[in-house]
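Sequence dictates fold. Below is an illustrative record:

_____
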Amino acid sequence: MVYDVIIVGGGFAGLSASCCLKQKRIDHIVFEKGRIGESWRSQRWDSFRLNSTNQLNLLPGMSCDPATADQFSSAPEFVESIEQYAKTAELPVIENATV
């Protein structure tokens, strides 16, 4: 298959770009070296919290639960949210890929 765009990295920026490309119907693929959000899984300490509130950490088309909008997610919570986003949006992510 030939793609118009190849995205390297399935983190916040890569998934954001993928969603925007999908909305524009541009053929693309996302390659992630590990799993979606890998650096958030493996390069953060256990007590790590994002330094911006949940309402500021939304991917395109995502909404925020008003009850948690002013809270600060942990790294595992953030990873779960972007994994769910990729799945729900049916983004073309290939995990464990070497580029």
